[in-house]
Design brief:
Pfam families: PEMT. The chain has 203 residues and is mainly alpha-helical. It has seven helices and no strands.
Length: 203
């Protein structure tokens, strides 16, 4: 019962945040005209909600308040950004290209995860194929690339602060996920094989 309520709460929260992001981007398009880069952010963040809806249930989900706070804050922050294309630092097409690359990395990682995807640390089965052969958390690497691309064409102190908070939260978030998954001997062997979390040869 408790895990079911936690699962439902996570879905409702992410739906509300994504709805607010959609409204923000649509309002920006109405005010400033069609913006390819900003429009690409919707499928990028929308994949989070889609995969949460389709994921399988599990009894191995963290009930620690700190883990929930980290996961939800890191998920919420990028959905609170605001479009401000008049402050672009790079050409829109260049930023849109890197945003698309980040989205493809996310999509590949989420495709491999399938119904095992979630925001809050949980064990829904180990995945070691595709980009998980290169780094242990390729989805977050894709997020960081997409966030940097969106910020470069919508630069503001607000957006920069949100993405900085999100990035800083990812490190303890990864640690909380690996703490839960580390209880599985299979994950311990996987972690020994794939040594880096986000960036090959760096971290």
């Amino acid at each position: 019962m408790k895990h079911g309520l936690l699962d439902l709460s996570e879905r409702i929260l992410v739906l509300g945040l994504y709805g607010a992001l959609v409204v923000c981007i649509v309002d920006s398009i109405r005010a400033d005209g069609f913006g390819l880069g900003n429009l690409l952010l919707l499928p990028s963040e929308g994949l989070v909600f889609l995969f949460i809806l389709l994921r399988r249930r599990t009894q191995q989900v963290s009930a620690r308040p700190g883990d929930w706070a980290l996961a939800l804050a890191a998920t919420a922050a990028p959905m609170l950004v605001r479009a401000c294309p008049e402050r672009a630092l790079v050409p829109e097409l260049l930023a849109a290209f890197f945003l698309m690359m980040g989205t493809l990395v996310q999509l590949h990682a989420k495709w491999v995860l399938g119904r095992s995807f979630g925001c809050v640390p949980a064990h829904r089965g180990l995945k070691e194929a595709g980009p998980y052969r290169v780094v242990r958390h390729p989805m977050y690497a894709g997020y960081m690339l997409s966030h940097l691309a969106f910020l470069s064409m919508n630069f503001s102190a607000w957006n920069a602060a949100l993405y900085m908070v999100c990035t800083l939260l990812q490190i303890p978030r990864l640690a909380s996920e690996e703490r839960l998954l580390g209880l599985d001997e299979g994950y311990a062997r996987y972690r020994a094989r794939v040594r880096h979390r986000l960036i090959p040869g760096v971290y």
